[in-house]
Design goal:
Layout (H helix, E strand, L loop, with lengths): L2 H6 L6 E3 L4 E8 L2 E8 L17 E5 L5 E6 L5 E4 L1 E3 L2 E5 L6 E6 L3
Antiparallel strand pairs: 1-4, 2-3, 3-9, 4-8, 5-6, 5-9, 7-8
């Protein structure tokens, strides 16, 4: 969405770089920012029922910390560490298969 629209809606400081076949919903749960991700890439009705894994990058202000929790669909929680780039931290997530939940500020 356009930056002006996100700003008007009280947009997040979280920047998501993902293919257009990925749906993302941003939420705050008990004061912790979360991103819910779903991958629809490569699906073909009645033919292909397993999405093609995709790569996703997330950028956040450095104040949010240099690690996040990544919980893939039917998987185990993983801690992902980011790299500082200026005043931001950039994370490269494990390949997204079906879906995942990303949360910040948790240990």
């Amino acid at each position: 969405p356009p930056k002006d629209l996100l700003d008007a809606l009280g947009g997040s400081d979280i920047q998501l770089e993902a293919p257009p076949t990925v749906a993302a919903n941003f939420a705050t749960v008990n004061g912790v920012p979360h991103v819910y991700l779903v991958n629809f890439g490569g699906l073909v009705p009645d033919k292909v029922v397993v999405p093609t894994p995709v790569d996703i990058r997330i950028k956040v202000p450095a104040a949010m910390g240099d690690s996040l929790s990544y919980l893939p669909f039917l998987g185990e929680t993983q801690t992902v560490h980011g790299k500082k780039r200026g005043d931001q931290i950039e994370f490269t997530l494990p390949p997204l298969e079906r879906g995942a939940v990303v949360s910040f500020g948790t240990k």
